[in-house]
Design goal:
about 250 residues, alpha+beta, NADH Oxidase, 4-stranded antiparallel sheet, 11 helices, about 45% helix
């Protein structure tokens, strides 16, 4: 494996040091070489480095240290706007204001983000994917002045790590791989696949802190609660409609 893949970890606090423009250029260039649907590059990257914009974005990412201390936040957006404008200027009628092409834009944006992350880590930088992008996409779109046809998909904070965290665990490979067809999991499979994680020191610490009997309930009752999931899903869906992805 490329060492940046094998050694990846999420960095949640950064030094205040600015990222040199030459390094940022390399990160963006790497992103641009990602695979893309039809070579259409249905994404845009908004690179935020000014303190004013970063301070505006941080509350939308719940002021988590990964956002609040970062010298740069890269917001990856599904973007059918640019390609549609090109079509219109050439007398071609675009048909990309729909859910299918939103998903193609999401795919392009996330592939580009992973290239950017690997390049950043190769330069000694740390990164953290900010899932909160989905929670406040409308407000982020307003701050970043995104036109119709452009939708925030994922933001990545980038900076020099204040400290390098340890590697996080992963499920065994047979938890995620299915050959030829999907093979569903027995109860025994589930128990086996999660056994190491459930017995880890980190899990035991979390159980004590949260006063809950198992790790699954920490996810469902503390981290990603059903009512919140429904609320933010509806909110994101409404922003998708506002940004023109359900016109057809």
């Amino acid at each position: 494996m490329i060492k940046e893949i094998a050694n990846h970890r999420s960095v949640r606090r950064y030094k205040p040091d600015a990222i040199p423009q030459s390094v940022m250029d390399e990160i963006i260039r790497a992103a641009s070489r990602a695979s893309t649907v039809g070579n259409m590059q249905l994404y845009s990257i908004v690179v935020s480095t000014s303190r004013e914009v970063l301070d505006s974005l941080a509350p939308l990412h719940f002021n988590q240290p990964a956002a609040a201390t970062a010298p740069a936040i890269l917001t990856f957006c599904a973007d059918t706007h640019r390609f549609s404008r090109w079509c219109e200027l050439r007398g071609a009628e675009p048909g990309y204001d729909n859910f299918c092409w939103f998903m193609n834009g999401v795919t392009d944006a996330l592939l580009a983000s992973q290239n950017a992350v690997l390049e950043a880590e190769a330069h000694g930088l740390g990164i953290c994917y900010l899932g909160t992008t989905l929670y406040n996409a409308g407000e982020i779109a307003e701050i970043l002045n995104l036109p119709v046809g452009v939708m925030p998909v994922m933001a990545v904070s980038v900076g020099y790590p204040e400290a390098m965290p340890t590697l996080t665990d992963r499920l065994p490979l047979d938890a995620i791989v299915h050959y030829d067809t999907y093979h569903d999991y027995s109860d025994a499979d589930i128990d086996r696949l999660w056994s190491e994680r459930e017995a880890s020191e980190e899990t035991l610490r979390l159980l004590e802190e949260n006063q809950l009997p198992n790790l699954a309930r920490i996810f469902t009752e503390r981290r990603y609660v059903k009512n919140d999931n429904i609320h933010f899903s509806r909110k994101y869906f409404e922003e998708m409609k506002k940004q023109g992805f359900f016109n057809q």
